[in-house]
Design a protein that fits this description.
alpha+beta, four-stranded mixed sheet, about 5% strand, single chain
């Protein structure tokens, strides 16, 4: 049965606000009371139960489809549909009653009568969590001065209408409102120009906040440090940056990358809170993928990441880029000398940039770097170190002998510095004749059925104390170890493993 007094559902109003006004117009204090009179519950209303909306149609005459469209209807785990838009719980202020005081004054036309009060309504924009400014009046969206019952728009604001009328709750935010204007148009079914339209409206607000805070307050600033007015201004700034398109966003990230920093800085240190947010915070969600893909590609194209390093959630399989700093470390070259020869070879341009800022293609420069560093091939390294092919492969697999860049998995290459360091190690052991109490590593491997790397680690870890080498030789094959000592060490390890 239709109620005696009905109110219209405005095109930009939430259904919750509408039901609150419907109850007030008929002398019912709250939504909960109105539903109770109809033998329904607030829980059923908030869950989007169809029978509740059919009953509201009977009471108000407003079509069920309109009531459902303008309600926050749950669609899944922490997801809601509002005006045809899918929104996460974190992007909505369900139950809260923020308002623009000037909008309310326009609604009740400065007349504090019951009839005028029934005309004041809650805009859909006001439940979007990132919206903080009225785009029409440039006033901050404010909550009631005191806590009130959730979801009860009229009940929350009725005690404060005099303060609203007197302008006591007005807070000017002259530089905000750009993002909010965009959201109002999107909720109305419009498709404004700009890249911002590519993002869901909930995700869009979060992106604009993070970008704007970084631009205005610095890359290490957090949202929790800022007042609502500061966040409103930052959100508009972030929106202007994002809506300018991918190239404009990339220009900002390049600006951050080229800022002064430390040689050891990684993308996380360079981009600050934005990187953390995209990698492991709320920005890691699928709705943020267009921005994350843009930043990921920017990192891949501008950072000298090695195999195993990460660009957000992407793990590098191989190195794509080198900086002077990474190439110098990898190939054991002096950075200053390397810069000169790279410039002479036309691989990089002469500049005043720091070594870690000068980037070039690793694949194109690989052969040149190998020649400049005296890179050693697999066969040559095997001969100089005195290793068999099987021993080489075993030590590489155990990550004891680490290849440099170049070559492939079957035939890796090694820096001259690596080969020299190992030869020096082998030569550091005292010389000795092959006494009956000593044996080679290869013989120990065969006798004890232990792996080459297992026995060699006993030497590297200084657990094997009696280590010698053949006279006049500095190679792996010349190393001599005490038969009894190595036997006892291997037995101790086996006993330990059995105990564990």
């Amino acid at each position: 049965m239709r109620l005696k007094n009905t109110v219209p559902l405005h095109s930009d109003e939430t259904t919750t606000s509408f039901v609150a006004r419907l109850a007030f117009a008929n002398g019912v204090p709250t939504i909960a009371d109105l539903l109770l009179d109809a033998e329904l519950t607030m829980a059923e209303f908030l869950k989007g139960d169809p029978k509740v909306f059919r009953k509201l149609f009977e009471l108000s005459g407003v079509p069920v489809c309109d009531l459902l469209r303008q309600a926050c209807v749950p669609t899944g785990l922490s997801r809601y549909r509002l005006f045809g838009h899918d929104l996460g719980k974190q992007h909505l202020l369900r139950g809260e009653s923020r308002v623009c005081p000037a909008c309310l004054r326009s609604d009740f036309d400065m007349q504090l009568t019951p009839e005028a009060m029934a005309k004041t309504y809650g805009r859909t924009l006001w439940v979007i969590s990132s919206a903080r400014v009225c785009p029409v009046h440039k006033l901050a969206l404010v909550p009631p001065p005191e806590d009130s019952s959730k979801h009860e728009f009229v009940d929350a604001w009725l005690p404060w209408m005099f303060e609203v009328m007197e302008g006591e709750l007005d807070q000017d935010v002259t530089e905000g409102g750009v993002y909010e204007d965009h959201i109002v148009r999107r909720l109305d079914g419009d498709h404004p120009e700009g890249w911002a339209t590519s993002f869901p409206i909930g995700a869009l607000g979060a992106i604009c906040e993070v970008l704007g805070v970084s631009v205005i307050h610095g890359k290490t600033a957090t949202l929790t440090q800022l007042a609502q007015e500061e966040l409103a201004t930052a959100t508009s700034t972030g929106f202007a940056l994002l809506n300018g398109g991918p190239n404009k966003v990339l220009a900002y990230f390049e600006h951050l990358r080229m800022n002064p920093g430390k040689p050891q800085d990684r993308p996380q240190a360079c981009y600050g809170k934005i990187y953390d947010w995209l990698k492991r915070g709320a920005g890691s969600g699928t709705e943020f993928e267009p921005l994350r893909e843009l930043v990921r590609q920017h990192i891949l194209e501008n950072w000298p990441l090695g195999a195993g390093d990460q660009a957000l959630d992407y793990v590098m399989a191989d190195r794509r880029l080198h900086s002077i700093r990474t190439a110098a470390k990898t190939h054991d070259l002096h950075p200053k000398r390397l810069r000169h020869i790279l410039v002479d070879a036309g691989i990089i341009q002469d500049s005043n940039l720091a070594d870690f800022k000068v980037i070039f293609d690793a694949a194109e420069a690989r052969e040149f770097l190998e020649q400049a560093s005296g890179s050693v091939g697999f066969t040559a390294a095997q001969k100089r170190l005195g290793l068999t092919r099987g021993q080489m492969e075993t030590l590489i697999k155990a990550e004891i002998l680490v290849p440099g860049e170049g070559g492939d998995l079957a035939r890796p290459r090694f820096t001259e510095a690596t080969i020299v360091s190992w030869v020096e190690l082998f030569g550091s052991f005292p010389e000795s004749k092959k006494w009956e109490t000593l044996t080679s590593i290869a013989d120990a491997v065969r006798k004890h059925r232990a792996s080459t790397d297992r026995i060699f680690k006993l030497i590297l870890e200084c657990r094997a104390k009696k280590v010698f080498r053949l006279q006049g030789q500095s190679a792996f094959s010349a190393i001599l170890i005490d038969k009894y000592e190595i036997s006892m060490l291997l037995r101790d390890d086996e006993n330990t493993e059995e105990t564990v």
